[in-house]
Design brief:
With about 120 residues, the protein is of the alpha+beta class. It has 2 helices and 5 strands. Strands 1, 2, 3, 4 and 5 form a 5-stranded antiparallel β-sheet that branches.
Amino acid sequence: MKLIPIYRINTYVVPESVDRVIEGVLSVDSLIYGNYKNVAWHSNDGIEQFVPSENSVPTEGSIGERKQVTSFKIEFSIPRDKNLLSKVIEEGIYPNHPWDEPVVQVTEEFETRKHG
C-alpha cells in the first residue's frame, strides 16, 4: 500500500451540466487513480440553494430572491500540484460550469494506492 498526497475537489452543478464539467476537467487532466483513468464520482438529486446579490449575474433565479435547484455533487482527486489545481479549476471547471460563481471546494488529503 502506498499513500499519495492529493487535492480532493468537489463542485456542485445542475444535472444537465454534469457531463460538460467532467469533460472540461478531463481535457486538463486524465484523473488517474492507480491503474484507472477518468475516475470521478457524482451524486444524484441534491438541492442547492442561493440568493443572488446585486453584483451577481444569475443563470437562474432573481436578485434578492432565494432559489433552489436540483444539483449534483461532482468529486474527484488530482495530484497535489498547485499549478495543476489552478489549471483544473480555471480551464476545466469555470468555463464549463453554468453558474456565475461556482462552488468549488478543495481539500488536501491522502489516498491509498494498491497498484501503481
